[in-house]
Automatic annotation (TrEMBL):
<dbReference type="InterPro" id="IPR015424">
    <property type="entry name" value="PyrdxlP-dep_Trfase"/>
</dbReference>
<dbReference type="GO" id="GO:0048472">
    <property type="term" value="F:threonine-phosphate decarboxylase activity"/>
</dbReference>
<dbReference type="Pfam" id="PF00155">
    <property type="entry name" value="Aminotran_1_2"/>
</dbReference>
<feature type="domain" description="Aminotransferase class I/classII large">
    <location>
        <begin position="3"/>
        <end position="257"/>
    </location>
</feature>
<dbReference type="InterPro" id="IPR004839">
    <property type="entry name" value="Aminotransferase_I/II_large"/>
</dbReference>
<dbReference type="GO" id="GO:0030170">
    <property type="term" value="F:pyridoxal phosphate binding"/>
</dbReference>
<keyword id="KW-0663">Pyridoxal phosphate</keyword>
<dbReference type="InterPro" id="IPR015422">
    <property type="entry name" value="PyrdxlP-dep_Trfase_small"/>
</dbReference>
<protein>
    <submittedName>
        <fullName>Threonine-phosphate decarboxylase</fullName>
        <ecNumber>4.1.1.81</ecNumber>
    </submittedName>
</protein>
<keyword id="KW-0456">Lyase</keyword>
<dbReference type="InterPro" id="IPR015421">
    <property type="entry name" value="PyrdxlP-dep_Trfase_major"/>
</dbReference>
């Protein structure tokens, strides 16, 4: 983050490393809040009204922790019109059905004030590979990144595998089909359980707001009694002590967590 200007706006709740990275590099932070009551939508009027208060804007699309994808072309228009930098984390975009309708990759060559963050760790299930990359047509920004980055930032395993994983069309197709089907199943079954609110998602995780138990209490119970680990999402800016996030995994594992949640919350 050393290579971007000093005033950074972040749309919350979102991945906390944006804020941490900004603070480590002494950037001035401006926090905007997504509208939880409207699928965590972006308040474009608020951003436009405060456009002179920041130089760059971070947005996660699909967003983490709620997993909902947004069409952010209107936001892009505001950024372009005001000559700001839009930084978009699209690391979960591959899970989205019809991702080409939402990804801003198609605008990168046309506009040089877009920087898109991508990774193979999520969709391809390779967190240990540590392969992420950025996409932009802004040559100055690229040169600035090279000024600060470590000399060896891609390991040889990641370098080799990158020549193959993006060409595995069968894996990509079957994975998209699986998550589309399993998402629908999980959302439907979770909404049958009382004492929780289940948010819509387009990715491989689901945000839930509990009603009668705190997130830390449920996390501990599931771990001790069922050997299941969930994400306590209460530390996301804008979320509360009753928010949790669960992953969509194999069908058998999904059935297991549904069974245990029913046992703890459904009766």
């Amino acid at each position: 983050m050393k290579n971007i200007k000093k005033r950074l706006a972040i749309l919350n709740p979102t991945f906390s490393e944006y804020e941490r990275g900004a603070k480590l590099n002494n950037l001035e932070l401006i926090n905007f809040m997504l509208n939880e009551d409207d699928d965590f939508s972006v308040n474009l009027k608020e951003i436009e009204a405060n456009i002179d208060d920041f130089d760059s804007l971070f947005i996660c699309n699909p967003n983490n922790p709620n997993g909902k994808v947004k069409n952010i072309e209107e936001l892009l228009e505001i950024i372009i019109k005001n000559d700001k930098l839009l930084i978009v984390d699209e690391t979960f975009m591959e899970f989205v059905h019809g991702e080409e309708n939402y990804s801003l990759i198609k605008y990168v060559e046309k506009y040089n004030n877009i920087f898109i963050i991508k990774a193979v760790t999520k969709f391809f299930g390779m967190p240990g590979l540590r392969l992420g990359y950025g996409v932009t047509s802004n040559k100055k920004l690229i040169n600035d990144i090279y000024t600060y980055k470590e000399p060896w930032t891609v390991n040889s395993f990641a370098d080799t595998l990158s020549n193959y994983i993006f060409n595995d069309k069968e894996y990509i197709k079957s994975s998209k089909e699986y998550y589309l089907k399993e998402r629908s199943y999980m959302i439907s079954e979770l909404r049958k359980i009382e004492n929780m609110h289940v948010y819509d998602t387009d990715t491989n995780f689901i945000l839930i707001e509990l009603k009668d138990i705190r997130a830390d209490e449920l996390k501990l119970k599931l771990f001790k009694e069922s050997n299941i680990l969930i994400r306590n999402a209460s530390n996301f800016i804008g979320l509360g002590e009753k928010h949790i996030r669960i992953a969509i995994k194999s069908h058998e594992e999904n059935q297991l967590i549904l069974k245990e949640l029913n046992k703890l919350l459904g009766e």
